Structures are given as C-alpha cells and as structure tokens.
Task: structure prediction
Amino acid sequence: MKNYLRGQQGVTVLMAIGFMCVLAILISGLLPYVSNLIRGVTFTTEHVQADYAAEAGAKRALVSLARDAYDKSADAAPWGWLGNNTNVLTDNSAGTYKVTIQQRDGGGNYTAYVPTAGTFIPPAYYKITSVGSFQGRTSTIYVILQVNANEVTFTDVQWQKMRS
Result:
C-alpha cells in the first residue's frame, strides 16, 4: 500500500488545478449573463424613475386644474412651472418633469393653453402631456379630462406611457 501511495504524489494538486480550471470556465460563461441582468435592472429602474417623474407632473397639473376650476382667488394654483423642467425633489435626485396643457377647440383640435391665476378654467376638454426624465430616460404620460361649469370630470383618462 505504501508503494501505491508513493506513486500518487502530486495527483491531488493536479486534480485541484483541473477542478479550478473547470470552475473558471463555468464562471466565465456566466459573467455575461449576470452582467446583462444587472444592466437590465438598472435600465428598468431608470425607466420607473422617469415614469414616476412624469406621473408627478401630470398629477400636479390635475390638482392645479381642479383647484382653479373652483377657486378664482389670485392665490389659486400658480402656473409658473408649466412648460418648464421642474425637479420632482429639490435635490434633483428623482428627475424632472415638463408639463404642457392643451385645450380642445370646437373642431376637435388641441391648442396650447396656459391657465391664468385668478381666473376660472373655462369648460372644455383638456389634454395634459407630462414628460418625465431621469438619467437620460424619458417617459411621457397623456391625460384627457373635461372641465364642466362647476366640476372637473375625468373622462377617457389614459395614463398612456411612452418610453425612450
């Protein structure tokens, strides 16, 4: 038995090196897969942040329109942010949104509309477009609503999202 073991010196080292080579080949084959998964999660996270920014802008416009539909005071919703890039948070960590509002005319065409503080929102159909941005990703939300004489009615509300 001693003679048999004497001839086997170094086999353990060779087996360990072989095992390490097989393991290295398996791991190197998995690296591109794991790398793509990480990139996909990052890409998805950035789009979700852009979605949230766009949604924040659309909701701000909805609340402001609803407030101005009822409140004619000079301190009703201020509209200076409309059409400008607005930070979701003050530290700009959550991206920005840009909102435009269009009013539908009698022919069914939408034209730009900028509400004026201190005046009622006239009865009509409105289209809110909110574009959210986060780290180069964008998401656009369109909302259609109707303002009646004494109420805001949300009709055909489509939180339609378009990403890029």
About this structure: The beta strands are 86-87, 96-104, 110-112, 124-134, 137-147, 152-153, 160-163. The chain has two helices and seven strands. The chain has a mean pLDDT of 77. The longest helix spans residues 11-70.
